[in-house]
Amino acid sequence: MLQSMTGFGKAVVTIPTKKITVEIKSLNSKQLDINTRIPAVFREKELDLRNMVSSRLQRGKVDMQIYSEPIGVETTVSLNLPLMAAYKAQVEEMAVALGIPWPEDWYSVLMRFPETVKSELPDTLTDDDIAALHQAVEEALEALVQFRSKEGERLREFFTVRIERIRALLAEVEPYEKERVEKIRARLEENLAKIEGVALDKNRLEQEMIFYIEKLDINEEKQRLSQHLSYFMETMANGEGQGKKLGFISQEMGREINTLGSKSNNAEMQRIVVKMKDELEQIKEQVLNVL
Question: In this protein, which residues make up the domain named Endoribonuclease YicC-like N-terminal (predicted)?
């Protein structure tokens, strides 16, 4: 089953003292790139959390955000005003340097920065806190994987339609092949007949015409393209982790389609080739999202 690199997963785990929320989203990327936003109290577990993510996700640009809310514990919460003032000064400096306007809503901008809210919660983690954190991350990862699988099924259907369209377009080429060769031969003979005062060796001329027409033969390109189409479908059925391979196959398909276009020498065949290229470009665009 194909898997997309695009996905989102969320999990909430509640224990007597905390509610831990984990949100993980991923986009396509050549490698696994993990970005995290973790409360200070959980910072010591960041390496463990990254290892959990990398064990489940092979590729993708992954953003993981973790929120922790106190429950049933009296605590004093205050805004870190000096830090917020420093953030505001830097944003203003950036706006001047880049020539862009200041934010219209300073409150929402400043509250997004880390450590802007201070609370007098214990700085040490309990075993229950760690267990709840790991559970939330595991559940969010599972939700993300399920999301990726659903997107992968959508991509499989998308690719299947495009591959079958290219296969149908390839079949449309056949009626024009014989017509194309006959027109090329007739045009060559007509042009040669216009040359006066030149003795032509009929046998040599026939050999040269056969050689020239054979150079325009597209049977090999048609056969290879058909094989690539079948190989693409087989690769999709082989399971996850096939994104790079599908990308390579689509490149090979593009080479055969381009060669068909350069050899076609026929307006209708050129039109068919253009349609093939359009379908292939849609495949190439979406194959970047396949894991």
Answer: 2-156
Name the CA radius of gyration of the chain, rounded. 31
Q: Which two tokens stand for residue 42?
A: 């959980």
What are 282's two structure tokens?
């849609």
CA dist 275 and 45 (Å) reads: 53
Query: pLDDT by residue (tens digit) across 27-67?
Result: 998 899 999 999 888 888 999 999 999 999 988 999 999 99
Q: What is the DSSP string of the chain?
A: ---BS-EEEEEEEEETTEEEEEEEEEE--SSEEEEEE--GGGGGGHHHHHHHHHHH--SEEEEEEEEEEE-S----EEE-HHHHHHHHHHHHHHHHHHT-PPPS-HHHHHHHSTT-EEE---SSPPHHHHHHHHHHHHHHHHHHHHHHHHHHHHHHHHHHHHHHHHHHHHHHHHHHHHHHHHHHHHHHHHHHHT--S----HHHHHHHHHHHHHHT--HHHHHHHHHHHHHHHHHHTT-SS-HHHHHHHHHHHHHHHHHHHHHH-SHHHHHHHHHHHHHHHHHHHHHTTB-
Q: pTM of whole model > 0.90?
A: no
